[in-house]
Fold this protein.
Amino acid sequence: GNSGDAGSSVTQGGAAVDEKGNEIVGTTIDGAGKEVDMKKVDGKTLESSSSEKLSKGKIGANHVSIDSAKLVQTEESKVLVVSFTYENNSTEAAAFSNRFTVDATQNETKMMPAVVNMEGINVLSGVEVIDPGKKTRVQKTYFVTDEETPVTVMVQKYGLPEDGQVEKVFLLK
């Protein structure tokens, strides 16, 4: 992943960033993670071909797990919804999106982030600032154009892949 250019500005303070690493001014959403509820998401639960061991672990001073995914039909397209648990074990409050980059890929091709407004989904959950010692649920959503190829979801620290990573492969069919 070549996201080195986005890395430097992102780690500052608690400002939220969008998928491209641009700051979203004035967004710290309290309680956004509480609206994340995969049970309420109307879609097909996907099987995974990965071991549980790979899909959760320490990244820097944090614990991240890739929990589950659903394939959802929206008005325009099919969307992959992925749910994560983020535990902030560092000494500073920080949002998931400030600390990590998440890539969903099919055959090495990155999937494009989608914005979905549906019950059980909160695409802003990743910008909620979490205090040290607390955990929250986070979701990411992606456009699905290829329903054959498995999706590899990988989380790693911005610009610091050597700090550890977690990944999980979801089968779309």
User: Anything to note?
Assistant: The CA atoms of residues 156 and 168 lie 12 Å apart. Residues 1-15 have pLDDT under 50 and may be disordered. The helical segments are 4-10, 96-99.
